[in-house]
Amino acid sequence: MHPAIQFFQFPQEIAHKQYEALRAFYLEGKSAAEVAQQFGYTISAFYSLTRDFNQRLKQPNPSQRFFLTTTLGRKPQESKVENDQLILSLRKKDLSVSEIKAILDSLGHEVSERYIYNVIAQTGMKRLPRRTKQSREQAMASVKLPAPPSKKLTYRSETFRTPYSAGVLCLLPYIQTYGIHRLIESSDYPESQNLNRLSSILSFVGLKLSNIKRYTTDDLWCMDRGLGLFAGLTVLPKASWFSSYSHRVTRAMNLSFLKSLHRLWQEHQLLGDSANIDFVIKVDFDLTMSILAHNLYRLLAMDLPGFEVSTSTSLFNKFICNSAQVQIDSQTITVLMKKKRNLPPLLNALEPFQNLPLSWMQNQKFRLLADSTS
Fold first, then answer.
1. Which of the residues 132, 165, 172, 216 could staple to 210 if both were Cys, CB 3.0 to 4.6 A apart?
2. pLDDT of the chain along its 374 residues, tens only?
3. 365: helix, strand or coil
4. H or E element: which one contains 160?
């Protein structure tokens, strides 16, 4: 007899034996007496087995009784030691708990802020002194870690933290409402098998909205899950990709897109607050992305009483530059913004967009809330 046939007909392990017996009874249609005799059960023992099996089917993951899933990667203890060492090394660079959490999220380490706090507390490290915006930026710039690969977001259920530019996500409803996503998708801009046209352009726009003026080095924005989400990605691509993509864009592509954007603002009677492309002499890609980002800021400003004429930089500092916890489930993207002085006006401005489906994001519904734990 072939060893493979013997393996199935005469199982040695208890779980394997139970599986084959139940399979013969339910799938092959053999009688209880036949199965009991074949696998060495009494009739009453086999009926007990079927009863327990039917109870297990009502529970989550019933197959785990028979099949063990091998977890790839390092052993849990090894991962814990690695996480703890990374947490402490980042803390020594004067990063806050939320900043450390954002970096760990981007690297795929699933740990809570409470866990990070406990690891730091156990070593006796002191609390961080009050930091200026410049000192926070310097601390983040000192972090040199390999940027994770950028991939298309699957919108599986997860929770992560975004450290600085969480407010950029508040502009997603404006992209949906005014059909800017369709404008980008129908443009002539390049795309690749790994990165479609919309994600490519929104990667640039996300950086523009975040007040990031250079793409020459892999800064921490390469690890910001919030900026990645804005573009429909896990994280934004590395800096080298931005340079390569820009060189593939032609003047004709930019001019065509700006004309489409011009017509869009005409349709919505917003032309007075947008750039007049007839006077744009040098239509390069960087300028085009700046115009699109500026227009998005103007749309937001129109919904913020008292801030209608604020500059893009002022709007960024007051409303966009903030941290948040982002929760994604099967139907909703919820952005829980950290409480700050200018958050209430932003919440009021976004109220009409609550639960707005984002069509290019698998119709996930957008929600903006204040984080009660901030």
1. 165
2. 677 777 777 777 777 888 888 888 888 889 989 888 888 888 888 888 888 788 777 766 667 666 655 555 555 555 677 778 888 888 888 888 877 887 777 677 777 888 888 888 888 887 888 877 677 767 666 666 666 788 899 898 888 888 778 899 999 999 999 999 999 999 999 998 889 999 999 999 999 998 876 555 445 667 788 999 999 999 898 888 888 999 999 999 999 999 999 999 989 888 754 444 444 446 789 999 999 999 999 999 999 999 999 999 999 999 998 889 999 988 999 999 988 899 999 999 999 999 999 999 999 999 999 987 65
3. strand
4. strand 158-162
The CA-to-CA distance between both ends of the chain, in Å, stands at: 68
Is the whole-model pTM more than 0.85? no
Domain range spanning residue 94?
83-141
Are the beta carbons of 367 and 355 closer than 8 angstroms? yes
| CA–CA dist 311, 294 (Å, integer) | 9
Tokens coding 323:
């941290």
Count: domains in the chain: 3
CB 103 within 8 A of CB 220: yes
* Pair 94, 165 in one domain: no
Shared domain for 173 and 122, answered yes or no, is no
In angstroms, the CA 115 to CA 87 distance is 10
- 177 with 269, same domain: the answer is yes
113 and 236 assigned to the same domain: no
And the tokens for 43? 């009739």
232: Cβ contacts below 8 Å, ≥ 6 apart: 152, 153, 198, 199, 202, 360, 361
* Tokens coding 285: 């890609």
State phi, psi for 335 to the nearest 5 degrees: -105, 115
| Integer Cα distance of 202 and 232 in angstroms | 8
Q: Mark whether 206 and 330 lie in a shared domain.
A: yes
Which residues make beta-bridge pairs with 369? 336
DSSP string, 129-156: PP--HHHHHHHHHT---PPPPP-B----
Contact present, 304 and 319 (Cβ < 8 Å): yes
